[in-house]
Amino acid sequence: MTSQLLHEVLPVSNAQLKHNFGAFIKKHRIAKKMTQEELATAIGLTKKSVCYFEKGRTFPTQENIFKLAQILDMSLDEFVFGMSHFNHEISVPKINEMLQTLSDKEQGMALATLSTIIETIIKGRE
User: Fold this and answer.
1) Residue ranges of the chain with per-residue pLDDT less than 50
2) Which end of the chain is more exposed for a tag (fewer CB within 10 A), N or C?
């Protein structure tokens, strides 16, 4: 159920999303004139991790997404949604439906993450 809803929100496959996200990271790293090693050091990861992100082999963790956005001088909303085609048809009932598929602990984590993202977006507007 959750993956079906995710595909409605993100109309691309998981592999394509990883590839797009990796290309997006690489494009902005290069624009900052940083090497993979410099970016890795700034995040606190290995060069191999950055390479895996850029090749679409893995996604960065939530914490590392925040770090990447900061290091690449991008607002979080610009970083997270800048490379995807966000479906503006998503509604509160759909979000609630997705949350209901999660355990109480997972719901808490998802809501805390969403809260942080929204707060960061709002602060970026100021």
Assistant:
1) 1-11, 84-88
2) C
